[in-house]
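Problem 12. The chain below contains 302 residues. Write out its predicted structure in token notation.
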Amino acid sequence: MVSEIGLGGWQLGHNSGWSNMTEDEAVKLVEKSLDYGINFFDTAPNYGHGSGEERLGKALKGEDRSKIVINTKFGHTHTGTLNFSSNYIRESLEGSLRRLQVDYLDSLIIHNPPSGYLDGNNNDHYEILEQLIDEGKIKAYGASLDTYEDMKLLMDTTNAKVIEAFFNILHQDALRAFDMAKEKGVDIIAKIPLDSGWLSGKYNSESTFDDIRSRWSSHDIKTRAYLVKRVKDIVQSKHNLAQKAISFCLAYDAITTVIPGNVNADQLRMNVASADHPMSIELVKKLEKFYHDEVKDLNLPW
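Solution.
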């Protein structure tokens, strides 16, 4: 069993491209999440060049391992390079185990790989991952993916049981794979539920960015600002938009846990409270219609 709200660990790493937490701040944030009942933690070797895993491991040291669920990734290395070779899986895993100070992982997922790596009929990655399950090194495997097509390919050709899917009010393509995931017993982790901060309501058409969010063009910013205004109109709330966005994800029983980013205790508290405010089916359907009518064809960049 995992908490409906998990802790996304990108921000825990030093020089993560999102924030620049000190180790003490990172450890305290994890400890606070435990206080709120969070037991699912998502991380990756490249988060802060390995420091994200190290800090998470330090914060969880001494906790009952049987009650903690840790998901990490393979493919984006701790040195900042990409290596999706099957020959690198064990080396990557051992590095993660060492940094996290654990002897097994609850799940190991391939970190947004090119689609060609998802076909289990043409890659030996999944044989190795099955061996790691037999050896007790991992309990499950899967992939972090952005589209329905990639999710379907993985589920059609492998025994993957975990998918970290890009899903939020403005990006609903993954929804098409939810029924298939339930049929196959695949657990879905909803990533980027706040659309990199836009669905927190704190940005507008005049916002500028000097971190990883600088990937957006001025046109992207104006488009998203307009769409966020439309979302506010639909949900009839100018406040606590983040809670509405997270509640939208939690409305789907195919989703096991949602991992919003948190850079401080106040954000963490607000995000956790989202689980106490379920969204009505009527409002979910309105937001689905909004996506299909006004957002889908825009092909928004992440």
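Discussion. The chain has one domain: 7-196+242-278. Students who got a different answer should revisit the alignment rule from Section 12.3.
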